[in-house]
Amino acid sequence: MSTLNRHAQDLSKVFQCLVKDTEMQFPALSQSLSQDLARVEAAVSNRGNHVFLVDMPQLGKHLDKCLASGHYSRSGITLSKRVSKRVETPKFLRGIHLMVFDSHGCLRKDACPVAVAAYRQLLLFAKKYYVQPSDAMVSTAVEAFVRADMDRPEPSRFWQMKSDEVFGEFVDYTEASGDFSLLSILATVARMISTTLGHYDPSEWRFKHGPGAVSDRTGKFDKYNWSNWSERLESVFPFADYGFHSYSSWACFVDTAGVLEDILPSRLIAVPKTAKSPRLIAAEPVANMWCQQNLHHYFAARIRRSWIGKFISLRNQGQNRALALRGSVSGHLATVDLSAASDTVTCNAVELLFKSNMGLLRALRATRTPYVSQTATTRVAETHTLNMYSTMGNATTFPVESLMFLAIAITAVLHARGLTANLENIKTLHGEVSVYGDDIIVPVESRDSLLRLFHLFGMDCNHDKTFFEGNFRESCGCDAFRGHDVTPFYWRRPYGRTSESLSAVVDFRNEAYRRYMLACSAYAESTLPQGIPEVAYGLGAFGYSTRLKPRVPNGVRWNDGLQRYEARVLTLTGRNEVTRTEGHSALLQYFTEAPSQSDDWEAGYVHASKLKTAWRYTSLDSLGCSVPTL
Predict the structure, then answer these.
(1) Does the pLDDT at position 610 exceed 50?
(2) Which of 254, 318, 426, 596, by CA, is between 20 and 30 Å from 617?
(3) For residue 517, is pLDDT > 90?
(4) Counting beta carbons within 10 angstroms of the beta carbon of residue 274, is it exposed (0 to 12), middle (13 to 18) or buried (19 or more)?
């Protein structure tokens, strides 16, 4: 059987279970849903898994826009054929559709939020299905990435210098544009953000390595053993001060090994995103990432401790989700999303944001990787000079883009309301403006000013995920309709005898069980191996969550040494394989990671860190099971 057919069969089975669970919610729709199942099976026989991975998610996006506009319109997508030419009602999912829209396509005033959630669940369950991108998909994505970047303005002279021997000239947006009042407000807001962040001194913040791949080395290697430290990095982060635990270590290293001073490129990597296209990220040079992490620590601390933290969080999406729910009731808050957000933040925009904090701006320039390499296609250069500030993969990208979008959002609201740009007025916007990366929430009245600023900076609004009207909102993984969370859960992959697939299916099973979708949870369990334990809610152990008292697994024993009852169960373990290191790099690693005396720590580099499925004895208390009676 081909891989595509296996995917189609797997998705069809999950969809059948979703239909059964929907019938349990709405028994009166049983006949209609049976007809819908037959329509999907017919479509799959002609179009394969494309129906689940592309067609139905497109219908889901269309549904969201219709919920926001208050009227259902034709889409021309597969499975969207109408009942007749006189009515807008689609044949597919007709029964549940009429619980949300009337026969004329108007959103019902009494539209059932449970029906909306079920409607979206049926259409979007496979939206995030794991599909390994093909070479052609990766090649197309890389070409689009490079060509889009070539259309962006080149960085100013400041970004092309290795140090401050000659000071660069900044771009003045207020002179280059006719939107003087709007950009003047933005310049003031940017100056307030920049000065609030305060002086940047690398010695005050933590250096560390990131967990992911790097561009200048592959295979097994020690990240603490330097091979390159560019002149640009040296201008802000002296190698002797920040690359070693002591000057004697530095002196010994440069005397015996030496180090290159090249500006190395980052390396584009494609990772699965959707069935239509992969996500592109970049692995950074190891020395750049070391210093970028120091800047990230600075941003996180300064944001958290200042008024900026009322509008931005680099870790917690809760505020955006809560405001999305509120906005779906009142309609006065919009949820905004950008297309390829990090790729649209230019060096010139970063200048405008941070030019009042030159120490910080110099550090951002020093750690920025100006080149990116790729081997996916010969239609574009193997090494491309970036016009954008940075790609995803640079540790400063997320905080920088968050601050940039916050400055734009605050400016748009102040401009729309005719308010002066001062701290007092900005603080009044708490609870109306919130930013998490490219997920932005603003009052609806600021729409024109916000879109104008996006246009001026070459940023593209993702209209499929941006909502200014009606009672549907989407932000940070929360889909909201009239104050109700209607977010679907996703079937990401079937069990395929790997630890990752086991974890994914157990997560799906537990979410289905939480939502009382018992056909889905039972099907997920039926595809998994024996030995996975039941676990009480809230304990966090791996297993099947249950609202009842978990059943005691087979094979219980008393552990004399640990004084506890244990059961042998199938579980996931994450064991790192470490190659030990010695010398100066081991000392730097020790002082960087600062392990406590109780840690089982050793110097070295991890070259294998994957989930593994294993049988282990686990205490009954950790599962929430009752202790067996003697």
Answers:
(1) yes
(2) 596
(3) yes
(4) middle
pLDDT in tens, 481-495: 999 999 999 999 999
**By the 8 A CB rule, do 434 and 319 touch?**
yes
- Tokens for 559, please give them: 């552990």
Rounded Cα distance, 275 and 49, in Å = 10
Instruction: Tokens 């016009």: give the residue.
Output: 387
Using pLDDT thresholds of 50, 70 and 90, give the confidence band for residue 363: very high
| 322 within 8 A of 454, measured Cβ to Cβ | no
Burial annotation 97-133 (CB, 10 A radius, 16+ → b, else e): bbbbbbeebebeeebebebbbbbbbbbbbbbbbbbeb
**Cα 515 from chain centre:** 24
Contact 215, 265 (CB under 8 A): yes
Sheet architecture: strand order including 604-619: 556-559, 564-580, 604-619
Distance CA 20, CA 146 (A): 46
Instruction: List, edge to edge, every strand of the sheet that includes 439-443.
Output: 333-337, 439-443, 434-436
DSSP character for 382?
S
If you ran DSSP here, which 8-state letter would residue 310 be given? G
d(CA 136, CA 46): 23
Residue 256, pLDDT above cutoff 80: no
How many CB atoms within 10 Å of residue 236? Answer: 21
Q: Which residue has tokens 């401009």? A: 415
pTM over 0.90: yes
Inter-residue contact 475 to 335 (CB < 8 Å): yes
**In 10 A of CB 390, how many CB atoms?**
29
pLDDT one-digit tens code per residue, 149-206 = 999 999 998 998 765 544 445 555 555 556 788 999 999 999 999 999 999 999 999 9
Tokens coding 281: 């990220």
Residue 234 has pLDDT above 70, yes or no: yes
The 10s digit of each residue's pLDDT in 118-155 is 999 999 999 999 888 888 999 999 999 999 999 999 99
Residue found under tokens 């929360």:
478
Distance separating alpha carbons of residues 471 and 64, to the nearest angstrom: 10
Task: Give the DSSP H/E element, type plus range, for residue 46.
Answer: helix 30-47
Q: What are phi and psi of 482, to 5 degrees?
A: 50, 40
Task: Name residues whose C-beta falls within 8 Å of residue 497's C-beta, 6 or more positions apart in sequence.
Answer: none
- Residue 587 CB coordination number (10 Å): 17
Residue closest to 583 by CA, chosen among 600, 604, 599: 604
How far apart, in Å, do the first and last CA atoms of the chain sit? 52
Residues 6+ positions from 193 with CB-CB distance below 8 Å: 308, 353, 403, 406, 407
The answer to whether the CB of 355 falls within 8 A of the CB of 194 is yes
Which position has the token pair 């099947």?
544
